[in-house]
Amino acid sequence: MGAYDRKEATVNETDSKLRIIQVGRELLNAKDYHETVIDEIATRAGVAKGTVFFHFKSKENLFREILFSVVDDIVTMMRRVNEMHAGGLQKLRQVYDEYIDLCVKNQHLIISIQRELARGSSSDSGEVTALHREILNRFAPAGEVLREIAAQMKTDGVLKEYGAGGEALISPMVMTFAGAVGSMVHLYRSSPDFARLRDLLWGILMHGILRENVSQTILETERTQL
């Protein structure tokens, strides 16, 4: 096999792996894990069943990679928003809105990520602990983005109640809040009042961060400034 053929084979392998992950995400967001079978994933991805096992040793291994892909999408989104020419508070609102959109699109997988994190923090199983650690490692850049946004908010004069270095408290606060938001989306995504709940949760987050009552007028004003 020549150099060109080897390169083309590598591209095809990468493409098939990405298709398998994407199809797996779609199915796992529509079905329970135990209802999703490798045969259906292979058929929808347009590959042989053996190709799935070539890339992933088992269904569990594929599931892990799918969870990682969702985490990576969240981090990529946050980095992109952080590059926008906007104020810190506007960036945080954009992250919040796009995170909810990702939760709606990947509702079952977001819950699975939260479940694995909860299990990993208390389980004696090495495999679960390894998954827990890897998810946390992949989420680490998200914390850095939030710290940068918080620092910008302080520079913008938004975080008036925080002393020197106090903006470091924002990142863990938002990350913890994100878990609650994911659960709320899963429970109430079909509710006719979902849009109101979305704004209510944002108001609660702002109250926690700014340590003061934030009027709806202020919230709507900053939302339209992007």
How would you explain this protein's 3D organization?
This protein has helices at residues 3-28, 38-45, 49-55, 59-82, 88-105, 107-120, 126-155, 170-188, 194-210, 216-223. It has two domains: 1-56, Homeodomain-like (Arc Repressor Mutant, subunit A); 59-223, Tetracycline Repressor, domain 2, CATH 1.10.357.10. The chain contains ten helices and no strands. The relative contact order is 0.09. The model is unreliable at 3-11, 213-219 and 221-226 (pLDDT under 50). By secondary structure, the protein is mostly helical.
Describe the structure in brief:
The protein is an all-alpha fold and 226 residues long. The protein has helices spanning 3-28, 38-45, 49-55, 59-82, 88-105, 107-120, 126-155, 170-188, 194-210, 216-223. The protein has two domains: 1-56, Homeodomain-like (Arc Repressor Mutant, subunit A, Orthogonal Bundle), CATH 1.10.10; 59-223, Tetracycline Repressor, domain 2 (Orthogonal Bundle), CATH 1.10.357.
Topology:
Elements: H1 3-28, H2 38-45, H3 49-55, H4 59-82, H5 88-105, H6 107-120, H7 126-155, H8 170-188, H9 194-210, H10 216-223
Helix pairs in contact: 1-2, 1-4, 4-5, 4-6, 4-7, 5-6, 5-7, 5-8, 6-7, 6-8, 7-8, 8-9
